[in-house]
Amino acid sequence: MSKVVVGLSGGVDSSTTAAILHQQGYDVIGLTLWLMKGKGQCCSEGMVDAAKLCEELGIPHHIVDSRDVFERQIVNYLVSGYSDGLTPLPCSQCNKAVKFGPMIEYARTELGCDRIATGHYARIHYDDATGRYQLLRAVDRSKDQSYFLYDLPQEVLAHVLFPLGEYPKTETRRIAAEFGLHTADKPESQDLCLVEANGSMQAFLDKYITPQKGEIVDQSGKVLGYHEGVHHYTIGQRKGLGVAYSEPLYVVALDAARNRVVVGDRAATLASECTVQGVNWVAIAAPTAPIRAEVQIRYRAAAVPATIIPLAETRVRIVFDTPQSSITPGQAAVWYEGEMLFGGGVIEP
Q1: For the CA atoms of 253, 192, 134, 30, what is the dihedral angle to 10 degrees?
Q2: Cβ proximity of 31 and 64 under 8 Å
């Protein structure tokens, strides 16, 4: 019987993943990562729900204390990025540095297993022609999470299962109810784990970054108002600027060095290109010539046509067919051909 370690957060998706694999005859072992210090909802309630799920299925449950690595890799990453005027994307960083790699290592060294599964909505396919594992969008495009998984290397994709990638979310809940799982009707998490635990991203950041009054200026440098810290703002933000003006204003730049928030009209948020670093090539090896693809610059944004121009193996320039609004440094740019994820990286300032 094949053994698989299932990452359990205590939610309906990971619970259903474990139940599906258990029914399919896998020797399932539940594994929950304790990520946050204090009483974060995701960890305290999640660990209890995960333990209860394992009891329902009659499978073993392991808890790994990952709080220190989460602090180093995610908390410090966010604080450093926001302090520099970026808007970091913690989920892809967490998937690579905190979850998937460490889970596989724990499964191998402690549980004698080299395969893991999670409740992510994405699919993996091995392509014989290229000898590479491909990351595909989920069948349910409204739930697709491949954007957050772009940074997983081939050696990780080779050992991962995503059973829910083939199902719409409504079917996931139906299956959970059919199995009689207590998580079948559990509400979905609506925010990042740190936001849920702290009430807001601003509240979380204010624990680590001392508010510092600075100027809100237009693109000519005229002072329009004042702020309490550039880390409270993000590119493209319109609401909550605290500035009265004759037309809608948007954040168009964050000057951390001068502690300034720069605002402008909507046209000022548009840009035709950006540079991306830390690129992970998934479906193909790093190209040496420009390629065409559809690029997604935010999780909920549509993928739009663009040309990807290699600058180095892990750095590219993206030129969009039409200007895009609010290209945000620190966020991920991920490119696809149809449902296949080609690669992705972090947008540079």
Answers
A1: 160
A2: yes
Distance (Å, whole) CA 278 – CA 135: 18
Query: What are the chain's domains?
Result: 3-197 (3.40.50.620), 211-264 (2.30.30.280), 270-347 (2.40.30.10)
When pLDDT is averaged across residues 35-57 and rounded to a whole number, the result is: 78
* Phi, psi values for residue 127, rounded to 5°: -100, 110
User: What mean pLDDT comes out for the span 266-293?
Assistant: 97
d(CA 241, CA 250): 8
pTM of the model: 0.93
Given its phi and psi angles, is residue 38 left (phi above 0), alpha (psi -120 to 50 degrees) or beta? left
The pair of structure tokens assigned to 338 is 């149809």
List, by residue number, the catalytic residues: 94, 193
Give the CA distances from residue 222 to residues 26, 226, 257, in Å, rounded to whole numbers and listed in that order. 64, 12, 17
pLDDT score recorded for residue 196: 74
User: Per DSSP, which regions of the chain are E strands?
Assistant: 3-7, 27-34, 61-65, 116-117, 122-127, 132-137, 160-161, 214-218, 223-227, 250-255, 260-264, 270-281, 291-296, 304-312, 315-325, 332-337, 340-347
What lies within 8 Å, CB to CB, of 208 at 6+ separation is 75, 79
